[in-house]
Every structure is written in structure tokens, then in C-alpha cells.
Design goal:
Elements: E1 2-11, E2 14-28, E3 31-37, E4 52-58, E5 62-67, E6 72-75, E7 86-87, E8 96-101, E9 107-111, E10 116-121, E11 127-131, E12 140-147, E13 150-155, E14 159-163, E15 168-170, E16 181-188, E17 191-196, E18 199-203, E19 210-211
Antiparallel strand pairs: 1-2, 2-3, 4-5, 5-6, 6-7, 8-9, 9-10, 10-11, 12-13, 13-14, 14-15, 16-17, 17-18, 18-19
Amino acid sequence: MWAVGTSMVRVKSVDERVASVLHCDGWGDAGPNWQASDTSVADAGSPEQISFNAIHGNASSGVWIVGNGGKTRYSAGWKADGTAWTPVNSRSSKNLNAVWCSPDADVWAAGEGGSMVRFTREGGGEYAALTVDVPTTGVLRALWGFAPDDVWAVGDAGTILHWDGKAWTTDGSSQGLTEDLFAIWGSSKDDLWIAGQNVLLHKGSASLPTEIQ
């Protein structure tokens, strides 16, 4: 289990907000065993003043974190003696709010101003970023998917977007929605949930997402 955010630390006699990445490797007598993971670049000299906003990973892609200013980090996985985080150029300076790792090892990140970034592996196994057009300039807040050609994004003003493997399009179920949408999750393509400001949507097997009163 992972968690990301910011924490206050004293850097050169000044309190600063710096990146905070935590990993839980189990429970002890006192509760969950959370351990901090340093994301700073090795030669930075001091903790980076970054706010990371989202984390996701799987066996194919490793673990990814994204945050403000387009900052992105990648790790092959947790190591008790020190997890190594590698900076990845997202080609974006906008705040990234969400990240989702596809089973085929592609990685998606989304955020402010309709920013959408796709990370794919190059021939040598290194990841490279490509900005992808989306039909919105609003804030995107969450990502979820089930396959390389079935990825969803939600955001402000009722935005619901779908990736079919070729392009991002506005989903018809968002018509008439004005509420900001903050989270999306599903157990399968026939069980997709979206939560937002005073609204909860569910996509079943025979319908588009519908509002639950």
C-alpha cells in the first residue's frame, strides 16, 4: 500500500513543504507499518519542495507518482533498504492530479488545463512521454482503466472522457452534468463508479453511467 502528499520539514532552518511518499508493508502491534521513501534526485542536496498528488503501479509498469509542476517519478518497486525513484520528463509544467498504469506497461497521467500525458517504453526499455489531445481544457482529477483500449478520466464540470485505444472522446453520459467529479474506480468494465460533488454515477453492463440518487 502506498500514499503520497507533502509534509513539513526543516530545511536549512526554514520550514518547507516537501514531497512525502509512504509505503505500508503490513501491520504491527501499534497499527500499520508506514515507512517514508525519499524521492529526491540523488544530487539535489536537499529534499525537493514538491507536492505529489497521485500514485499507481502494477507488475508491468512499476510504481509511478505524479504531482505539481508536472513532476513525475518512477520506481521498479519497493525495497526495504531504499526505494530508487527515477525522474521522468512528463513534457508538462501543469499540475498532474492522477496517474493510472495499464496492464501493457503504458502509463497515463492527467491534470490541470486538460493535460493528458501518455508514457510508453522506448526500444531500450526507457519511458518517454507524449502529450495527447483531449476534448477539454478543464481540470482532470482521476483516471481508471481496464485495458490499453479502455481508459477513463473524470474532472471538473461533469467531465467524463474515454480512451478507446485511438482517441479520447467525451462520454455521452456526461451530457447535462455540471458537478465536479473527483474519483473513479471499477472492478470491471461493467462495474464502473464515479464520485463527485453531490453525485455518484455507476456504469453497469447494459447502460452508460447513470446517476444514483
